[in-house]
Amino acid sequence: MERRDFIKTGGLAGLGAGLTILNFPVFGKNAPSNKLVLGVMGVNSRGNWLAQCAAKLPGAEIGYVCDVEDGAIARGLKAISGAQEKKPTVIKDIRQLLEKKDLDALFVATPDHWHAPAAIMATAAGKHVYVEKPCAHNPAEGEMLVAAAKKFNRLVQMGSQRRSWPNMQQAFREIKEQQVLGKIYYGKSWYLNNRKPIGTGKKVPVPDTLNWDLWQGPAPRRDYLDNIVHYDWHWRWHWGTSETCNNATHELDCLRWFMELEFPTKVTSAGGRYAYPKDDWETPDTQTLNFEFEGGKAISWEGRSCSNYKVEGSDRGFAIFGENGTLYVPGNDSYKIIDNQGKTVKEVKQATPSDQKATNVVSPAGEYYDAIHINNFLESIRGNATLNAEINVAYRSTLLPLLGNIAQRTGTILHTDPSNGHILNNPEAARLWKREYEKGWVPKI
Fold first, then answer.
1. Which of 250, 275, 281, 422 would bridge 306 by S-S if both were Cys, CB 3.0 to 4.6 A apart?
2. Can you give the pTM of this predicted structure?
3. Is the peptide bond before 32 cis (omega within 30 degrees of 0)?
4. Residues 42-64: pLDDT tens digits?
């Protein structure tokens, strides 16, 4: 089958024009028969979307769905049915799923407290992993995941999609190879939303449709409240990681990538639960993070979960400042280069329109841009590409907002080791480097 014909008839058709901009093959040797069987853990929202995108790609099949809530399972199966003919097998317990010999890779799109433990378990079982950001609930388990990927020789990709977007890769080359900004010294990023109060949770019986024990998994046991599942666990430290890891991870990753930064030397945070202080929301809804690095460079992030007045003309994005000008990215696969007199000297627009948040809250970027990143993962498994967000790189970007959370929770300035990001001379903050796990669920490598 000719490559052009396969694209027309295969899963990539309909994802948008311009597939030739991909920097890796669409399929590997012996494809399309080189099928990868995938499992998706967590299919209520983001995992549901990832499953649809992956199922449409050449040589990929969603063979298994793993979730602990019946409504989520039903939604996941319905979504996947529109992307492939074969109905996936449902397995609620991840431990049973990982025993399946035909499973090639696991997608992890659960609540944050499950991300690293599930990924570690999967690598130990010989599976490759695509894990949503953040790749860890705390720094220690992020380091464990990096070690597990190395020990078991498995590929682990984090869902930092922007690293696979063609115009972002082009902008990086312009900054690095062409030095269009000259010496770079500062990067700024932001995220805005208009989230409403979550109320005060009531202790009620666990619904018959939910396996609360498996939902909690590695987290120490807590009573079930009626405002945790499915989404508002994000704002509780026991399971979630705040808006920082929920969204700042993306733009901070881009700043670290474009500015070639590794681990910081100093971390500060300011903010709190200001907009609606009388509900169960524990994490900040308003927050600024600042990171300093060796070599005279710094980056920052501003987050407003409950006020969507735009920054620099967009509700999310980043800007990088250099001696010769500024790079501006409004949160999608487009960018501007602006000189020091404020004149736009170059503007590049993305090839395919993004989905709007009003219609697609789980993927504002859209199917085409998510599919590029997923396809990079699948082609890397086949040996035809290298991961764009490999876990050793991705963990370093996840560590930044995790350190910001620790600075916020302790009310202290963090001084960190630039070789590994470890907290120096701050016992109170160092205690939050790791967490306690439920007995029987401690991650092992």
1. 275
2. 0.92
3. yes
4. 999 999 999 999 999 999 999 99
